[in-house]
Amino acid sequence: MSSPGLRRAAVAVVLVLLLTLPAWVGNPYYINIASQILHWAVFALALNVLVGYAGLVSLGHAGLFAMAGYTAGLLLAAGSGHFTADVAAVGVTLATSAVFAVLALRSTGIGFLMITLAIGQILWGVAYRWASLTNGDNGVNLPGRPAPFGISLAGADAFYYATLVVFVLAVASMAVFVRSPFGASVRGTRDQAARMNALGYNVWLIRFLAFLFSGFWSGIAGLLFVYYNQFISPQVVALQTSAEVLLMVISGGTATLLGPIVGAAIVVIMKNVVSAYIERWNLVLGVIFVAIIVFMPEGLVPGSVRLWRLGWRAMRARLAAPAREMLGDRGR
Amino acid sequence: MTVLAVNDLCKAFDGLRVTANVSLAVEPGERRLIIGPNGAGKTTLFNLITGELSPDSGSILLFGRDITRVPSRRRPHLGMARTYQIITLFSRDTIERNVALALLGLSRLRWNPVIDFDRQFDLIERARATLARVGLDHIAGRPVAQTSYGERRRVEIAMALAQNPKVLLLDEPFAGLSIDERRDVQALLRAIPRDVTIVMIEHNMDVALEFAERITLLHFGEVIVEGTRAEVVADPRTREVYLGE
Fold first, then answer.
1. Which domains does chain B have, with CATH numbers?
2. Cβ–Cβ of A192/B159 closer than 8 Å?
3. Is a pLDDT exceeding 90 seen at residue B245?
4. Looking at the partner chain, which of B88, B113, B120 has a beta carbon nearest the beta carbon of A192?
5. How large is the ipTM?
């Protein structure tokens, strides 16, 4: 089977596994873990647009993620309908992303990282200190999950399938973006910004639009998060969330579609499953990250592909050696 | 009409004058050579013309239109293309993809987030045709990282040619090339039609003098000598400043 054929077959198998997951997992606890992996994966994919494809490392994306969650949470708590709250949440997140981008794109590299970190911290400060709006440290409780088309998402299975639909849409939109001329332009600004400018590209605008795209999916992930937990607090806006999602992207492999998903799975499983058995699960997570950086600096997914190819080549060479010897013997 | 006119252009970095009242007038189809010792301000002049640097004073006219304040990203759309002294290619991509990116830069398609770039057969066809012009079509699918230095130089030129420029600025296109590679690039430049005006910076006098019709000699950011090849070579200031006699 050809390489694209193999890829399509692998995607089909994964889709079937994901679609049947509630049937073979059974336990709602693990179905909820799967929902968490999926919505964190959407967030990691969104950050990957900037980190992997645009070469812009953000440490303030938790601000965008939480902006959607807070907007929806506050509107729902005030009595709005789910549709209004969700549309407003995405709109506010996009507007915040635009402000983020205008401020942060004055710089690249470490300057960009520091500006996003600073704005993220400002948003955390607002969530924490503007208690009359955000309820401060007590957070915002949601009255409940939505019921689109009359289907209640209150149960673990239904919410999992809703998250899966959004996840598939996110992956599909990223796949289309990556292969598109605009995706190529974004990657070009990462690799040779000055050259792109000299070729007629508007580097700033390309980065700005990439930021909005990333912000949009961060907001969608934030909505999934807030519906999953039915609660949001300033802890979600904290630097730790931004750092965690950045680690998901880097550990899985930047500029790949699969990498951020694998990274999200590792972090969520460590936090929720391994922590039940190992008290110092943070230490284990740290060791895993160090091991990835040492042995696969490009990330788990591209690193595994590299090691697989090396292993495959070595095996073929070993298999070919006796055959060559036999042929050599015959020749003599 | 003069294709490219530079009038009294000045640029200083922290008080150090790198371009001092430089004026040039390049006529249609001309092959203009800009020479000068290291630090004479040749590349700075190119960066001013392409808009990568803003001049402190003076003006730049392209086909009579004042482009002094036109952003550098707009200038390729007006018919200006350049190559770099230090090769700046997209090393993770194939040669063909590099040239396709150059073509995409002038196309509205560059904003399209939905279609498949690899299925834009018109762009790919045009990229292949440009690569055929520079003799690289047989290795179009090879990643840039797996090409020789001479091949990369030609890819640089192919990317500029792909944009169908009216004015082509070449910054030391022969730098670092072997004798054979130099011959190839020389043939390639000779084959560029006369509707493309070429301004070239070059240190290698053997190849540059053969190519040039008019020469401008820069020294400490100033135009010291300008004229035909014979006039500039014969001028004692050229020998004094550049040839060290």
1. 1-79+165-245 (3.40.50.300), 85-164 (no CATH)
2. no
3. no
4. B88
5. 0.93
